[in-house]
């Protein structure tokens, strides 16, 4: 390792002033309406977080509406239909538009500060994610004002949602949330690459702040949890729009497949919400215990362990579907086991408090409230994980109580603690201690009064999702209590909202590092500058502000890396994944409306598709493709004016890298992991149908035969091979071979995709007739769509070299395209093996 | 049902077996058989200011309470639940107490090792042991619960439909009879429920007797239950199944075997022709208005199978799948305002019928004992 010594002497004052001017100019946020073209994490992060809070309020108002309806038995405050829309939208909004995005929003805002980076590696991608989230969210929430909202529950079980709910509500849900999930995956890519690649020099893997560890785990979970739901939504929407019977038993489908795909997403999702919130606690507790966390390694292991185990629990949402006892037993055991890593984390925090001298503060107050609520939610979680008890409690208000104890204790209270803790980073001022205490009192009392009685109303026989109940059920008093609690809870949120928006003109700026924390985010000046950190420090501790004397002075005076922006580019340092050695000076894109337009046009495809406006949707898709290509062409893989630059302290770094050293390669790799997971979900569907049918494929098999699938796979593998060769020829600077190779690969890919489609087409498979043709068709369509994407990328590589934007040395485009094709080749070979090979052995 | 007993309007229902914490207002309202007495109770919780007070007031009883078991499965689950509550309560208090102590304790008071012991002991070892114990307890209950009733037991088929229950009982002579929205069981015998659905997913749940199992289109699920006490209980659909999911409940009456046999024998009979002139007129209207296209009244030309069988609808404790009490006025309301009472129900309304016509049909239906 290099010695983490800053410059002995600060540069002279006039040099520093000139550096600061250049940095400010480069990182400046545009004014006027162009403000919304900003992509800087400190702007996008704030919009994003504010957006999630607005959706939280919207979801909360729906909850108040429901609680008012349930205040007394046989109430008619709202109709059954509106109530059903309300609980569907409430659950969906809280999950998809608050809980998941708020973690991404906070991470966009804070992760660069935690890592001493100027910004995350793909600022425009963050902006794209924000705009996609906003468009999708407004579309979804707006539907309830037109009485057109989804009303199938946030879990959308078919056949209710496939055949028994005409109208566009279910389509809004399926397409709108698929769009938002894609934005979530984009954010996950940003988080993972950010944690892996934009750490400050010296922040080895054992020095990463716990927050970043948690974000890494949660983002990785998104990669594997969301694709099954996207695949499931695709199948359900196709069933709704074109009557392919994936979930319809009359056509050989099975509604249970949806439940598997949904909960394969749904259960990990709980931990995707929980872990990043605990991450805030993991930063707050050491600060107020005034000592490093006790059991850093335990916390990391527990977070990773929770992530893994959470993928093995989904069936505990399906105990009552009549699965065999042996699977119930296994999933019950796994569900109990996940309590152990959670317990480890809680005890690490308690041990830290024990070993330190705890200071009282509003963030600690909310952290303590979170403990009290969450531990109770965990305890009821242990109860419902046991199959016999769950057979009673499942789908009753007991579960409503349980999940709110877990999510409000495990996520909302920590997020409020984080809000009070990190607010100075946002606008340089603290929130009010007095209002914080009032809010805590109202929230804590309101929450328990609202939700504790629900345990009992559930066990007294009140099912979930009922718009009313009879008086003789004996739950009238309990429900009225819950309603009163809900309004007290809402009052608490109102106090917090006021604390956030109240005018703070007269309030002085907070002092720097107001809580005397030890981690890098508190390097920030009050108020913060758009450049993030003045210079990027070298780190040798988990709590550098505590352990590295003069760190704040040295970064401020530009004694570390990248103190200047002499060429007028936004830059940050990327480092190696494990030991954080600097590898590249990464140029970052500046303000642009292109992410906005890309999000609007991609969203247009989904929204217009909801109304079955296929032609406008196609037009929107073409526009989206244009915007995205323009974005890539003008904003990515730019050939720098020089090979490398001196980033300070005698360190010279390249300005251009490709392959695993570059952030783009990692992003492609991560996206393709998600893509493969979605594909695996479809293949899972194929074999799921095999398990539930005595003869699958049907006998005699009308299937796609062997010839066309094998030919298709052969051609596509050829396209892959030529792409790999083209990458090599590019390095050897043999441009003729490069162009010929890629263009031939395009032809092979086209022919391969067509041959795959010819399989079911020429054998006359009718996807509406039965689930077997439907699942074969969906697999080949998936491959063909990838062939189309692959062709676009190959042609893009041809054009890039033709235009001089890619050279033998500057080969990011072809390297990443090749990486994409590796995965396509695997996808196609598996598809051919399944649709052509499996019928032979079945 | 006497009008005088109707103190709380429509939604006044019979209550379950006698229970301890709340003493129901005892009024014998209908004698189904000698050993079953159904009581009305107007439980009005007078105070709800404090949750704890509420717990004591409303207690654990009720027609639909998992904590007031009247079946073997429900008893086992309730016992498991109370053990879990005890464990959870102790652990919760201990963790919170520890956290409070950790906040106030001075750091010098502990050796550095204490933290590690706490993490390993409290975070890993202790929960592993406790959870393993509960897991074994939970798993040990499962084989019995999941085992079907022995050969020769009563097999009752129940189909969940939006938003009512189609019920089929096998008859001693080898045939079967289709009923709806009410289930009668012999006490002390394990019975199988064969569960399915022709439309969307429902879930069959009688909390007083045991757990629930989903009714899934394209699949057949089995639930075995064994009532241990006689009485009247209530079941409900637990899986959200569309607009009127909340109004999909049913009564469960548990008899001694002998009374059960008598009940089944009576249910298997065709409907007796009405004698009362109003009811005779009601029957004419029933047939003339096409009710028979959807409903069956055995012994008449009405043989529809879309809606519930009405052959003995007058003997049932409720109409509209637990939505209204089974009394003449309720029939009248139901026919005139069907979709007000049960939103989006398949049955059309008959607002064109005059009041006296409605009254006649109500009299006929209520008389189908």
Brief rundown of the structure:
Chain A is mainly alpha-helical and 842 residues long.
Describe this structure in words.
The complex is a heterodimer of chains A (842) and B (369). Chain A has 842 residues and is mainly alpha-helical. Chain A has helices at residues 13-26, 41-69, 80-114, 123-142, 160-163, 169-197, 210-242, 255-289, 296-309, 325-337, 339-355, 362-385, 387-393, 397-427, 433-459, 476-501, 544-547, 551-556, 594-610, 614-635, 663-692, 707-731, 735-762, 771-802, 812-841; strands at residues 570-575, 582-588, 644-648, 651-654. Chain A starts with 12 loop residues before the first helix and ends with a helix. Chain B has 369 residues and is an alpha+beta fold. Chain B is built from eight helices and 15 strands. Chain B starts with 13 loop residues before the first strand and ends with a helix. Classes of the chains: A mainly alpha (842), B alpha+beta (369). At the A-B interface, helix 3, helix 10, helix 11, helix 12 and helix 13 of A face helix 1, helix 2, helix 3 and strand 12 of B.
**How far apart, in Å, are the first and last alpha carbons of chain A?**
57 Å
What percentage of residues of chain A falls in helices of 4 or more residues?
A: 55-70%
Number of helices of chain A: 25
Order of helices and strands of chain B: EEEHHHEEEEEEEEEEHHEEHHH
Q: What integer is the average pLDDT of chain B? A: 85
Using only C-alpha atoms, the radius of gyration of chain B works out to 25 Å
**Average of the residue pLDDT scores of chain A:** 95
Distance between the termini of chain B: 13 Å
Reported for the largest beta sheet of chain A, the result is: 2 strands, antiparallel
Radius of gyration of chain A: 27 Å
Strand content of chain B: 15-25%
Please work out how many helical segments of chain B DSSP would assign.
8
Q: Proportion of β residues of chain A?
A: under 5%
- Major β-sheet strand ordering of chain A: 1-2
Strand order of the largest sheet of chain B: 6-5-4-8-11
- What quaternary form is this? heterodimer
**Form type of chain A:** globular
Class from helix and strand fractions of chain B? alpha+beta
- Label the overall shape of chain B: elongated
Low-confidence stretches of chain B: 1-54
């Amino acid at each position: 390792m290099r010695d983490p010594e800053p410059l002995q002497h600060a540069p002279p004052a006039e040099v520093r002033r000139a550096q600061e001017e250049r940095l400010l100019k480069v990182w400046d946020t545009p004014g006027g309406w162009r403000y919304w073209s900003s992509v800087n994490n400190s702007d996008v992060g704030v919009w994003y977080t504010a957006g999630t809070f607005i959706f939280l309020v919207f979801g909360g108002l729906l909850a108040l509406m429901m609680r008012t309806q349930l205040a007394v038995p046989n109430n008619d405050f709202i109709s059954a239909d509106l109530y059903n829309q309300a609980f569907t939208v409430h659950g969906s909004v809280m999950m998809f538009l608050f809980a998941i995005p708020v973690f991404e929003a906070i991470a966009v805002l804070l992760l660069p500060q935690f890592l001493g980076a100027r910004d995350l590696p793909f600022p425009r991608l963050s902006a794209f994610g924000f705009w996609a989230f906003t468009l999708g969210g407004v579309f979804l929430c707006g539907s309830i004002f037109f009485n057109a909202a989804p009303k199938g529950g946030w879990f959308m079980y078919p056949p209710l949602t496939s055949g028994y709910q005409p109208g566009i509500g279910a389509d809004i849900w399926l397409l709108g949330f698929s769009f938002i999930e894609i934005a979530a995956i984009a954010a996950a890519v940003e988080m993972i690459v950010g944690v892996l690649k934009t750490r400050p020099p010296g922040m080895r893997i054992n020095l990463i702040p716990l927050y970043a560890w948690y974000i890494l785990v949660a983002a990785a979970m998104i990669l594997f949890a969301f694709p099954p739901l996207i695949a499931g939504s695709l199948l359900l929407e196709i069933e709704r729009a074109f009557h392919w019977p994936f979930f319809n038993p009359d056509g050989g489908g099975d509604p249970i497949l949806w439940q598997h795909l949904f909960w394969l997403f749904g259960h990990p999702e709980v931990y995707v919400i929980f872990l990043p919130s605990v991450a805030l606690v993991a930063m707050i507790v050491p600060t107020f215990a005034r000592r490093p966390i006790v059991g850093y390694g335990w916390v990391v292991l527990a977070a990773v362990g929770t992530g893994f185990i959470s993928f093995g629990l989904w069936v505990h949402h399906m105990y009552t579907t009549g699965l065999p006892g042996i699977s119930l037993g296994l999933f019950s055991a796994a569900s109990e086991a996940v309590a152990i890593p959670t317990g480890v984390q809680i005890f690490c925090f308690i041990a830290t408090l024990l070993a330190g001298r705890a200071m009282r503060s509003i963030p600690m107050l909310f952290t303590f409230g979170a403990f009290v609520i969450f531990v109770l939610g965990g305890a009821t979680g242990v109860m419902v994980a046991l199959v016999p008890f769950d057979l009673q409690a499942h789908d009753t208000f007991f579960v409503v109580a349980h999940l709110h104890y877990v999510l409000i204790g495990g996520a909302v209270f920590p997020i409020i603690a984080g809000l009070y803790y990190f607010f100075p980073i946002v606008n340089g001022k603290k929130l009010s201690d007095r209002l914080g205490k009032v809010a805590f009192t109202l929230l804590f009392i309101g929450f328990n009064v609202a939700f504790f009685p629900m345990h009992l109303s559930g066990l007294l026989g009140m099912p979930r999702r009922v718009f009313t109940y009879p008086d003789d059920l004996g739950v009238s008093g309990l429900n009225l209590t819950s309603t009163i609690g809900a309004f007290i809870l809402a009052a608490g949120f109102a106090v917090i909202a006021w604390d956030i928006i109240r005018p703070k003109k007269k309030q002085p700026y907070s002092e720097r590092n107001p809580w005397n924390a030890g981690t890098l985010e508190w390097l920030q000046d009050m108020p913060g500058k758009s450049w993030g950190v003045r210079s990027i420090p070298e780190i040798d501790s988990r709590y550098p502000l505590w352990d590295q004397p003069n760190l704040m002075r040295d970064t401020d005076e530009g004694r570390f890396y990248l103190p200047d922006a002499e060429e007028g580019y936004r830059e940050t340092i990327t480092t190696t994944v494990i030991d954080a050695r600097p590898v590249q000076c990464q140029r970052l894109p500046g303000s642009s409306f292109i992410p906005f337009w890309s999000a609007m046009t991609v969203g247009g495809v989904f929204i217009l598709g909801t109304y079955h406006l296929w032609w406008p949707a196609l037009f929107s898709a073409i526009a989206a493709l244009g915007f995205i290509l323009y974005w890539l062409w003008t904003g990515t893989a730019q050939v720098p004016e020089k090979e490398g630059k001196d980033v300070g302290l005698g360190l010279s770094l390249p300005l251009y890298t490709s392959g695993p050293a570059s952030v783009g390669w990692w992003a492609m790799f991560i996206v393709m992991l998600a893509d493969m997971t979605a594909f695996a979900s479809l293949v899972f569907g194929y074999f799921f149908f095999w398990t539930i049918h005595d003869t699958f494929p049907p006998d005699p098999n009308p299937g796609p035969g062997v010839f066309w699938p094998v030919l298709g796979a052969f051609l596509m593998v050829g396209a892959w091979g030529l792409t790999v060769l083209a990458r090599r020829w590019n390095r050897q600077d043999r441009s003729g071979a490069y162009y010929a190779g890629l263009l031939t690969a395009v032809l092979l890919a086209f022919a391969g995709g067509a041959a795959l489609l010819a399989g079911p087409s020429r054998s006359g498979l009718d996807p509406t007739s039965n689930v077997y043709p439907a699942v074969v068709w969906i697999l080949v369509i998936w491959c063909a769509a990838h062939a189309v994407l692959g062709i676009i990328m190959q042609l893009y590589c041809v054009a890039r070299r033709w235009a001089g934007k890619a050279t033998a040395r500057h080969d990011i485009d072809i390297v990443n395209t090749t990486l994409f094709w590796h995965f396509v080749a695997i996808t196609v070979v598996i598809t051919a093996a399944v649709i052509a090979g499996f019928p032979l052995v079945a | 049902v006497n009008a005088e007993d109707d103190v709380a309007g429509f939604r006044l229902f019979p209550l379950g077996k006698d229970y301890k914490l709340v003493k129901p207002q005892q009024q014998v309202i209908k004698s189904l058989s000698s050993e079953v007495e159904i009581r009305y109770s107007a439980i009005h919780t007078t105070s709800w200011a404090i949750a704890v007070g509420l717990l004591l007031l409303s207690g654990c009883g009720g027609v639909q309470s998992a904590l007031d078991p009247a079946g073997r499965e429900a008893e086992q689950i309730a016992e498991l639940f109370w053990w879990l509550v005890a464990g959870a309560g102790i652990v919760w208090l201990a963790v919170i107490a520890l956290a409070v102590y950790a906040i106030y304790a001075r750091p010098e008071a502990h050796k550095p090792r204490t933290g590690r012991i706490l993490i390993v002991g409290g975070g890993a070892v202790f929960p592993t042991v406790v959870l393993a114990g509960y897991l074994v307890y939970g798993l040990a209950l499962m084989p019995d619960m999941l085992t079907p009733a022995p050969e020769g037991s009563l097999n009752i088929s129940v189909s969940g439909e939006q938003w009512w229950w189609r019920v089929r009982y096998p008859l001693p002579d080898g045939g079967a009879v289709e009923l709806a929205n009410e289930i009668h069981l012999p006490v002390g015998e394990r019975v199988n429920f064969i569960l399915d659905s022709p439309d969307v997913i429902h879930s069959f749940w009688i909390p007083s007797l045991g757990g629930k199992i989903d009714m899934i289109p394209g699949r057949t699920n089995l639930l075995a239950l064994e009532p241990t006490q006689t009485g009247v209980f209530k079941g409900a659909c637990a899986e959200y199944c569309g607009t009127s999911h909340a109004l999909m409940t049913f009564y469960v009456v548990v008899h001694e075997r002998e009374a059960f046999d008598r009940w089944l024998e009576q249910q298997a009979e065709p409907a007796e022709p009405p004698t009362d002139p109003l009811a005779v007129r009601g029957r004419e209207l029933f047939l003339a208005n096409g009710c028979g296209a959807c409903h069956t009244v055995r012994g008449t030309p009405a043989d529809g199978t879309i809606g519930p069988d009405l052959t003995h609808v007058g003997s049932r404790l409720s109409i509209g799948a637990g939505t209204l009490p089974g009394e003449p006025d309720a029939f009248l309301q139901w026919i005139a305002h069907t979709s007000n009472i049960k939103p989006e129900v398949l049955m059309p309304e008959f607002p064109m019928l005059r009041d006296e016509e409605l009254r006649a049909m109500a009299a006929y239906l209520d008389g189908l004992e």
